[in-house]
Write a structure and sequence with these properties.
Blueprint lengths: L1 H6 L2 E6 L1 H5 L3 H10 L3 E8 L3 H7 L9 H8 L4 E7 L3 H9 L12 H5 L15 E3 L3 H11 L18
Antiparallel strand pairs: 1-3, 1-4, 2-3
Bound molecules: ribavirin triphosphate.
């Protein structure tokens, strides 16, 4: 029972439009699979501005907010839910620092995020998104997915994996 509670933590991970267009869905999924996390939901979706304004509502007062929403609505996003022990915090570590100038090699952003010459865009196009806390993960998962889109499954042979 206790082990179950530990392993059911979920996080919302999205490949942003720049990541989808650059063919990075596969490598990003691989990094989560390689760490033993379990994919429980996935879909390609072009989100509306209203949807993205809700997703980023905590950032609504920031100067980059309108540009962020426009960019995120500019093409399909690959929305996913990953499950496993401490997946929110570990997921953020797998993604790397928000600003591509600071993301370490070995992280998704540190390996794939291109440092753009236009200053005002160099933070925004950072390939992927990951929930920053268990509470925000719950909110984001509820915004992007219906309950029935979340798969409940277990690997058939390995009971030590999630
Ligand atoms: P994310 O939610 O996408 O994983 O990113 P984060 O928590 O690491 O960063 P946050 O501060 O919540 O920002 C969300 C997204 O907004 C864009 N951004 N642009 N100065 C800028 O132009 C700027 N700062 C942030 C990025 O796309 C960032 O991921």
């Amino acid at each position: 029972q206790k082990q179950n509670e530990m392993t059911t933590e979920q996080t919302f991970i999205a490949v942003k439009p720049d990541g989808v267009q650059r063919g990075l869905i596969g490598p990003i999924i691989s990094r989560f699979e390689n760490r033993g996390f379990k994919l429980v939901a996935i879909k390609l979706m072009t989100a509306s501005k209203e949807h993205l304004e809700k997703h980023y509502e905590d950032l609504s007062s920031k100067p980059f907010f309108p540009g962020l929403v426009t960019y995120m609505a500019s093409g399909p996003v690959c929305a996913m839910v990953w499950e496993g022990r401490d997946v929110v915090k570990t997921g953020r570590a797998i993604l790397g620092a928000t600003n591509p100038l600071q993301s370490a090699p070995g992280t998704i952003r540190g390996d794939f995020a291109i440092i753009l010459i236009w200053h005002e865009q160099d933070v925004g196009r950072n390939v992927c998104h990951g929930s920053d806390a268990v509470d925000s993960a719950k909110k984001e998962i509820a915004l992007w997915f219906k309950e029935e889109e979340l798969q409940k499954w277990k690997p058939a042979q390995f009971d030590w994996v999630y």
